[in-house]
Amino acid sequence: MTKEMSPNKAALSYMLTVLTASWLITIILFIKPEVGIKTFSIIMFIPAVAAIVFRKMQGRKLRDRHRKMNAKALGFGILYPLLLIVLCAAASILSGTGAWHPEQPVDLKSIITVLVTIVVNLIVVWGEEYGWRGYLLPELTKHYGKLKATFFVGIVWALYHMPAVFLLAKATGMSHPLLLCAIQACVVFAVSFPFSYCYYLSGSLIPVLFFHSVWNVVNTKVLGDIYTNTSGLLQGNLFIMNGEGVMGLIVCGALMVWFIWKLRRNGVERKTIELRSVHQSIQ
């Protein structure tokens, strides 16, 4: 790769590299399912490692020009995933597919534990986000704009998860592993639109890290963990009520429509501004 490689070619090469590496490593880990269950999380660092390598090969710094995080982006990154989880929980309870029967009390100690876990987990989710929103999304945005860039990132992000979700479901005894894999991939694709929106609000990765961490920690705490087949505060069918299951697909899919409209609108406004600028320069 050379410094002259276009953002489009760099992004394509990056996507193929990450998918190939993550799928191969996941398959190798699950040759022994008990090993895969304990170590599958290491694939979360593949996007970041690949992004670092590609930046170095392109002769670029590990960080782009610093952009200041703002309160709107951070607030969205923390509150929106909580909203998704509340909506999934409410839909599960109202539909009778889930019931509030926490095995452990929800007290101050448990709340503090969740908050600490969210902060610590920022390091883990950085392994994905430095690659997806820190490198790939900006690269694709240069060539395709915000909406199409988000579409491509969503597809790659979904494909990246599929082998691990399928093999974990089989290893932990989750029902319908292939269907779960397909639904989780659709959820990941749908939620990539608010993830992109969160990034575009400031251009800083920090709000996106909180988005990802809050989602991972609170979703599994409240709605259960489809990766390990363990229940959360809500008792019921994980396949149905989880934020990365059927309820998550319904909620995230419905809300995705607004973010598509928002990203498309931002793209139109940007083109309008550019055309006005060109027109004024000609005059």
Structural topology:
Elements: H1 7-29, H2 33-39, H3 46-57, H4 71-95, E1 98-100, H5 108-144, H6 146-172, H7 177-200, H8 206-223, E2 234-236, H9 238-241, H10 246-282
Antiparallel strand pairs: 1-2
Helix pairs in contact: 1-3, 1-5, 1-6, 2-6, 3-5, 4-7, 4-8, 4-10, 5-6, 5-8, 6-7, 7-8, 7-10
Helix content: over 70%
- What distance separates the N and C termini? 41 Å
Give the topology string: H per helix, E per strand.
Answer: HHHHEHHHHEHH
Q: What overall form do the CA principal axes indicate?
A: globular
- Amount of beta strand: under 5%
Summarize the biggest pleated sheet: 2 strands, antiparallel
Strand order of the largest sheet: 1-2
Total of helices: 10
Poorly predicted regions? 271-283
**Overall mean pLDDT score?**
90
Structural class: mainly alpha
Oligomerization category of the chains in this entry:
single chain
How many runs of DSSP E, i.e. beta strands? Answer: 2
What's the gyration radius in Å? Answer: 20 Å
